[in-house]
Specification:
This protein is an alpha/beta fold. Helices cover 35% and strands 16% of the residues. It has five helices and five strands, in the order αβαββαβαβα. A five-stranded parallel β-sheet has the order 2-1-3-4-5, with helices on both faces.
Length: 135
Amino acid sequence: MYGDPATIRKILRESGDTWAVVGLSSNENRAAYGVARVLQRYGKRVVPVHPKAETVHGEQGYPSLAAIPFPVDVVDVFVNSELAGGIADEAVGIGAKAVWFQLGVVDEAAYDKTRAAGLAMVMDRCPAIEIPRLG
């Protein structure tokens, strides 16, 4: 339900190529670092969103979604489930087309609220696992 194949395909193929990755830093040992690299290999522009606003994989980082000075298509969330709902609300506020909660990030209320706002949403899945499956 939270990661149906049609929604996954829609986000990865049709929702746009600018992905804000919330929680992405220059720490190579974090999952966000590797996932962002895979997204880049598949043609996505990865925008780091982290309080440190570090440049990662050649892209300037920003401290928040609201600080990004250009449109974002998809917000990929690498934060604890307790914080994820607030990030989803911010994604709606900046006009993103989709929200993707990573493996282990689950907030059913945020899922329902984000979908009700008209955004595509996937929860508890990883785009680095899903994108190669599209072929």
